[in-house]
Every structure is written in structure tokens, then in C-alpha cells.
Design a protein that fits this description.
single chain, about 220 residues, alpha/beta, Rossmann fold, seven-stranded mixed beta sheet, 8 helices, 7 strands, binds S-adenosyl-L-homocysteine, binds 3,4-dihydroxybenzoic acid, binds magnesium ion, transferase, Methyltransferase, SAM_O-MeTrfase, S-adenosyl-L-methionine, methyltransferase
Length: about 220
């Protein structure tokens, strides 16, 4: 008998729970075909994002970091027909691949992609009036603290913030001097821990994405 392994068990969950349909599978494969890195959320994490949106009755979601739109499709499904997802992406090529995936998944009319560096495009969202109910932060980890601060500005009491990649194979524990990403995650935790309006939990994960994790915070 072979040793159990976390990746195979993750794949079992996805198979028996029917987590990934054709549109999601196509979105995942499109990223590889376009030469983009395979750094989208796992199928289980994607479904959890969808469920969190549905469970919290989120109707307006802001995502930072689109890639090929795998997580975005999950969020769009979670908000339902009358919900909206705004997703911020730096690379025009990623946005283009994502748009095709949104069409194929039948959720393009619920999603707005804004191309540019998120710190440049976030201020344009402040004038829109209506707060966001949920945030998914999954872009350049160096700016995580700034992104959480933007979520506080663009959210409301009761909004939830999900942050991806909070363990990075454990590198966040003692970030190397030149590891700006791990340092960015670490600085964000210090900020969240001291913030009077944030309550948070950080969950480490294993599986198809190896040792990583995500944090969930509630704006109080
Ligand atoms: N959320 C996606 C994965 C995102 S990968 C999913 O799970 O399916 C991170 C993405 O953030 C990449 O596409 C990268 O181009 C983008 N990115 C990096 N720096 C950025 C910035 N400053 N502003 C906006 N997007 C950025
Ligand atoms: C990286 C970024 C991600 O958002 C992710 O989920 C995994 C890896 C990266 O930049 O290495
Ligand atoms: Mg990520």
C-alpha cells in the first residue's frame, strides 16, 4: 500500500465533492497554456471562497490579483446573479486570458476587471460610494499591508477580508533578508494583530498547493 499523501487526498476531495466543473478546469488549464505560473488557488480553496461569499450574503466583492480568473469565477458564482466582482490585475495579458475564462464560465456580466497596479487603481474605487462586502487579497505580497488598509477604507463593519499565501512553506516565520514577499506577509500580520477594527484567524493548509494557507479577517 502506498503512503497517504496530502496532494492525493486533496484530489480525492475535489473528485468526490465535484468541486471543479468544466469551466473551472478550462480556466486552470488556460493559465498553463498561456505560459502563466500555476499559482491560482486550489479547487478546494476556490470553492471555500465561493461559499464564504454566499454564506456572508456578499453582493460586492473586490479581488486583488486576477491571474487567469480561477478564483474570480468562484467568487462570481458565490455572489449569485445579482452580485458583482471587481478584480484588479497588473498584467494586461492575464486580464485578457481571464476575460475569455469569464465568458466561458457564463459570469462575464458580473465581473469588472481593472488593469493596472492595484495601488494606482484602488483610489478610483473610493468614489463609487457603495462599500464592498468581501475582499480577496492575492497579488504582490509586498503590498499586503497596504491592501488590508484599502479594504478597511472600501469596506464596512461586517465586511470580510481573505488573504492568500500566509505561510509560503513556512518562510513567513523568519523571513530571509531578501525575501520581500515573506516580509510583506509578516508585516501584514503585525498590522492586523494591532488593528482595533480587525479580528482574524490564519489557517495553514497542505494539499495541491503544498504548505501555505490563508487568513480570514472580519472588519468590526
Ligand atoms: N487570485 C488568482 C491568483 C492571482 S496570482 C487565483 O487564485 O486564481 C497573482 C496575480 O497578481 C498575478 O496575475 C499578478 O500579475 C498580479 N499582480 C501582481 N502585482 C500586482 C499589482 N501590483 N497590482 C495588481 N495585480 C498584481
Ligand atoms: C505566488 C503567488 C500566489 O498568489 C500564490 O498563490 C502562490 C505563489 C508566488 O508569487 O510565488
Ligand atoms: Mg495566491
Amino acid at each position: 500500500m502506498s503512503e497517504p499523501d496530502a496532494q492525493a487526498l486533496d484530489e480525492l476531495f475535489t473528485r468526490v465533492l465535484h468541486t471543479e466543473d468544466d469551466a473551472l478546469r478550462a480556466a486552470r488549464e488556460s493559465a498553463a497554456a498561456a505560459g502563466m505560473p500555476a499559482i491560482e488557488v486550489s479547487a478546494q480553496h476556490g470553492k471555500l471562497l465561493s461559499l464564504l461569499a454566499t454564506m456572508t450574503h456578499a453582493k460586492r466583492v473586490l479581488e486583488i490579483g486576477t491571474l487567469a480568473g480561477y478564483s474570480t469565477i468562484n467568487l462570481a458564482r458565490g455572489v449569485g446573479l445579482d452580485g458583482r466582482v471587481v478584480t484588479l490585475e497588473y498584467e494586461p495579458r492575464h486580464a485578457e486570458v481571464a476575460r475569455a475564462n469569464f465568458e466561458r464560465a457564463g459570469v462575464a456580466d458580473r465581473i469588472e476587471i481593472i488593469v493596472g497596479a492595484a495601488l494606482d487603481t484602488l483610489p478610483t474605487l473610493a468614489d463609487r460610494g457603495e462599500p464592498f462586502d468581501m475582499f480577496f487579497i492575492d497579488a504582490d505580497k509586498e503590498n499586503n499591508t497596504a491592501y488590508v488598509e484599502w479594504a478597511l477604507k472600501l469596506g464596512r463593519p461586517g465586511s470580510i477580508i481573505v488573504v492568500d499565501n500566509i505561510a509560503r512553506m513556512g518562510r513567513v516565520l523568519n523571513p530571509a533578508d531578501d525575501d520581500q514577499q515573506a516580509k510583506g506577509v509578516r508585516a501584514m500580520f503585525d498590522m492586523i494583530g494591532e488593528h482595533p477594527r480587525l479580528e482574524a484567524a490564519a489557517i495553514q493548509t497542505v494539499g495541491t498547493k503544498n504548505w501555505d494557507g490563508f487568513a480570514v479577517a472580519l472588519v468590526t
